[in-house]
Automatic annotation (TrEMBL):
<comment type="subunit">
    <text>Homodimer.</text>
</comment>
<feature type="binding site">
    <location>
        <position position="55"/>
    </location>
    <ligand>
        <name>substrate</name>
    </ligand>
</feature>
<feature type="binding site">
    <location>
        <position position="227"/>
    </location>
    <ligand>
        <name>Mg(2+)</name>
    </ligand>
</feature>
<keyword id="KW-0460">Magnesium</keyword>
<dbReference type="GO" id="GO:0016740">
    <property type="term" value="F:transferase activity"/>
</dbReference>
<dbReference type="Pfam" id="PF01255">
    <property type="entry name" value="Prenyltransf"/>
</dbReference>
<keyword id="KW-0808">Transferase</keyword>
<feature type="active site" description="Proton acceptor">
    <location>
        <position position="86"/>
    </location>
</feature>
<feature type="binding site">
    <location>
        <position position="208"/>
    </location>
    <ligand>
        <name>substrate</name>
    </ligand>
</feature>
<dbReference type="InterPro" id="IPR036424">
    <property type="entry name" value="UPP_synth-like_sf"/>
</dbReference>
<comment type="similarity">
    <text>Belongs to the UPP synthase family. Z-FPP synthase subfamily.</text>
</comment>
<feature type="binding site">
    <location>
        <begin position="83"/>
        <end position="85"/>
    </location>
    <ligand>
        <name>substrate</name>
    </ligand>
</feature>
<feature type="binding site">
    <location>
        <begin position="38"/>
        <end position="41"/>
    </location>
    <ligand>
        <name>substrate</name>
    </ligand>
</feature>
<protein>
    <recommendedName>
        <fullName>Isoprenyl transferase</fullName>
        <ecNumber>2.5.1.-</ecNumber>
    </recommendedName>
</protein>
<comment type="function">
    <text>Catalyzes the condensation of isopentenyl diphosphate (IPP) with allylic pyrophosphates generating different type of terpenoids.</text>
</comment>
<dbReference type="InterPro" id="IPR001441">
    <property type="entry name" value="UPP_synth-like"/>
</dbReference>
<feature type="active site">
    <location>
        <position position="37"/>
    </location>
</feature>
Length: 259
């Protein structure tokens, strides 16, 4: 390691400790959503032709992130791992990415882990073997005492809302509720009760890496009052200091919820 690298790392460590001290007693988001973007560009930036290396490097960062969230007191973390749009990627890349996602799910549910793992998305668009792995880790971690970790796989925000409305209509049809009565009684909360994240707090903070500044359909309903933090860092290079910066920005904002 060169002298410049050692000096830079030492300065980063000092800055990180300063950020951590500044956050003592600050407002902490209950629910953090993360759009883990930039894996492919990271791989290409270091001369790798196989972008699966970028996905694997990004996957190895997830346990670190969840540990930082635990330290901060975050209750729910939603990880945007695979969108419905991503399913159109070339088959070799998609197959490798699905395998990586399965490996991540198994790792997060492994011995000694405390997180409750939940999958969210349209399972019917995923391969049966991926669905089976996600269901298994859900069952294995259902009663664990730690934070809830949502794995958004085969996820689309518009599709989630459509699925919620479909589920709501089916529920009332089974009860024999007339359409007129449903129209009269329908409230926002009734739809929220059928979302993939039902029973969880809405997202307070969304972090997106890689410099992109868009939501890509992520948690469209749950982020109505969320704060957003965009960073130029590619996901595989995301560090604790980057996470603490996001928390600092969140704590400095005055959330009025329209008031």
């Amino acid at each position: 390691m060169g002298v410049r690298r050692r000096v830079r790392d030492a300065l980063t460590h000092v800055y990180e400790r300063r950020l951590a001290r500044a956050l003592v007693g600050a407002d902490v988001p209950r629910h953090v959503g993360v759009i883990m973007d930039g894996n492919r560009r990271w791989a290409r930036s270091i001369g790798l032709e196989d972008v699966a290396h970028g996905h694997r490097r990004g996957a190895s960062k997830i346990v670190d992130l969840l540990g930082w969230c635990d330290d901060a007191g975050v209750q729910v973390v939603t990880l945007f791992m695979l969108s419905t749009d991503n399913l159109r990627r070339p088959e070799p890349e998609l197959s490798a990415l699905l395998t990586i996602i399965e490996d991540v799910a198994v790792d997060l549910a492994g011995p000694g882990r405390r997180w409750k793992i939940r999958s969210m998305g349209a399972s019917e668009v995923l391969p049966p073997e991926t669905v089976a792995v996600l269901k298994q880790v859900e069952e294995e971690t259902r009663d664990r005492p730690g934070a809830t970790v949502n794995l958004a796989v085969g996820y689309g925000g518009r599709r989630e809302i459509a699925d919620a409305v479909r589920s709501l209509l089916a529920e009332h049809a089974a009860r024999g509720t007339s359409l007129d009565d449903l129209v009269e009684a329908l409230e926002v909360e009734h739809i929220a009760e059928h979302l993939y994240t039902r029973g969880q707090p809405d997202c307070d903070l969304v972090i997106r890496t890689s410099g992109e500044q868009r939501m890509s359909g992520f948690l469209l309903w749950q982020t109505a009052n969320a704060e957003f933090h965009f960073t130029d860092v590619y996901w595989p290079d995301f560090r604790r200091v980057d996470f603490l910066r996001a928390l600092r920005d969140y704590s400095a904002r005055h959330r009025r919820f329209g008031g």
